[in-house]
Amino acid sequence: MNLILFGPPAAGKGTQAKRLVDGRNMVQLSTGDMLRAAIASGSELGKTVAGVMERGELVTDEIVIALIEERLPETEAAGGAIFDGFPRTLAQAKALDEMLAKRGKQIDLVIRLKVDDAALTQRIAGRFAESGRPDDNPESFKVRLAAYNDNTAPLLPYYEGQKKLVQVDGMGAIDAVAGAIDKAFDAPR
């Protein structure tokens, strides 16, 4: 099964994806993790990505799609992928559908974590105080949240039209959100 966890930055996608990886033997494809790994490598690509992320901008589709495509054989061997932070745009969603179709696969389920923007801003400020991660900077976060609302939220009708979208209240306790995700995951299709 291929699943997209959909929601703005700091909505809890990574937390829920890790739980699904442990419980369902799937592979998490977190573009954020992949991009941070590129930065940590010190490569030219990593330096480019670092500058983009520090400004709160989105990395180009070409870079992100190449990172995802590189990992697809791993997801197939494990029985499925959890896409976390991807796709972010309609162009990426269509590219993902095409990539998977060439391999005889598809997106089976899209779970949207519905959250409150003001609560997310408070959450990210606390996370930045703990981690110091440049992409958690509250000012950069506001740019990322605006980019999500402008570019990514419009994907909802795309997946709703495919009858793959399930909405989950992402503001509850981690276990409550996990339970709602499990219910959606296990529902007959």
Automatic annotation (TrEMBL):
A GO MF label: ATP binding
GO cellular component assignments: cytoplasm
Chemical reaction(s) catalysed: AMP + ATP = 2 ADP
Record InterPro entries: Adenylat/UMP-CMP_kin, Adenylat_kinase_CS, P-loop_NTPase
Known EC number: 2.7.4.3
Keywords carried by this UniProt record: ATP-binding, Cytoplasm, Kinase, Nucleotide biosynthesis, Nucleotide-binding, Transferase
Residue numbers binding ATP: A10, A11, G12, K13, G14, T15, R127, G172
Region (NMP): 30-59
Pathway participation: Purine metabolism; AMP biosynthesis via salvage pathway; AMP from ADP: step 1/1
Superkingdom of this protein's organism: Bacteria
Binding site for AMP: T31, R36, E57, L58, V59, G85, F86, P87, R88, Q92, R133, R144
Primary enzyme class: transferase
Subcellular localization: Cytoplasm
One Pfam family it belongs to: ADK
Gene Ontology terms describing biological process: AMP salvage
Signal peptide span: none
Stretches assigned to coiled coil: none
Matching SUPFAM superfamilies: P-loop containing nucleoside triphosphate hydrolases
Functional note: Catalyzes the reversible transfer of the terminal phosphate group between ATP and AMP. Plays an important role in cellular energy homeostasis and in adenine nucleotide metabolism.
Protein family (similarity comment): Belongs to the adenylate kinase family.
PANTHER family per UniProt: NUCLEOTIDE KINASE
Domain remarks in the Swiss-Prot or TrEMBL record: Consists of three domains, a large central CORE domain and two small peripheral domains, NMPbind and LID, which undergo movements during catalysis. The LID domain closes over the site of phosphoryl transfer upon ATP binding. Assembling and dissambling the active center during each catalytic cycle provides an effective means to prevent ATP hydrolysis.
Assembly, per entry: Monomer.
UniProt-recorded name of the protein: Adenylate kinase
